[in-house]
Amino acid sequence: MSAQTYYVPEQSRFPIFMAVSLFLLVMGASSTINNLDNPDSNSSYILYAGFASLFTTMFFWFRQVIKEHLAGLDSNQLKTSYVYGMAWFIFSEVMFFAAFFGALFYVRSFAVPWLSGEGENGVGISAIGLWEGFESSWPVMTTPDKGAEYALAEKSMA
Hints:
Blueprint: H1 14-34, H2 43-70, H3 76-115, H4 125-129
């Protein structure tokens, strides 16, 4: 460890390269999936270029971080900031999934039964005004328009 209090690395282009390679990867994957039935499509090359640029960028970025560590440019304060950053990342992921599953629970337990008339003494304004005759079931299998025609999995809604 060095005697410096905090090491600030020089400006890097790695985040931009990573963003471009992730863009290539997503575009290549979506193009490849959309052109699966077309054997003449060259979209898989975009996917391969995205994978190659992603792994190349990761290799050089990790190599740079390892070089900085082996040169003794990091300190205890930098290590602590890495630990705090990872802790905040994990906390944000936990909060995201709590919000996601909380919203799912809310819809399942409160919103769908309210649409079917539970609440306000069994005659909810939404049950009469929005969708008369709605029966709550989970998951909701039909829509008011043409849902009955497309309820089976083998039919397409297109």
